[in-house]
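Retro notes, item 3 of 5
We never archived the inputs for the zinc ion complex last cycle. Fixing that now. Sequence and ligand:
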Amino acid sequence: MDISASLPSFDEAVRFHGHVCPGLAIGYRVATTAMQLLGVDRPRDEELVAVVENDTCAVDAIQVVTGCTFGKGNLVFKDYGKGGFSFFSRDKSKGFRIRYHDFPMLPEADGARMEQLKKRIHFEGAATETERREYGELRGRLIQLVLTWAAKDLLDWQPLAEVPPNPARIHPSIVCEGCGEHVMETRIREVGGKSLCIPCSKEAS
Ligand SMILES: [Zn+2]
Ligand SMILES: [Zn+2]
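Structure as it came back at the time:
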């Protein structure tokens, strides 16, 4: 099933993220590949779950394309610093872990020039307007490569055996005895016989 026409465009991801960058392009490829593998449209609710193993630019494209968002709780962050992304469809009872295993490169001379310009812009702070423009063009070509490479050259994937847990997110609130603000019950800490929120408990101990 080809569902690519129904998915948000890369431009929509750029608008959400605020800038265009190679990491966002990778996230876009990961997310669109996941939707193709699962054969699902962008869901409205929590029937799709994403587990991301890093908090890079890529994750913003994943939120836009898959509808798995931080606010809905169907985007789970594991702070592993790895390039792995898992997706599970509850409706279809199937899932995949996708990772990027290779990254396209510009022809050697262009790649070297890009590194040189990057140094001038980001470390020496001495780049001219022309150099900045040249850097932008090279970077744009690299991003284009990420967006157009065959998925199997950029990524690999494995089916997932298990449904990731969907922990209950709604808990009663109680009032912190330190600041008087409402706090989700599961985040209350008992310090010196008082029920405190996390910031107050840190102050008290
Ligand atoms: Zn970015
Ligand atoms: Zn408090």
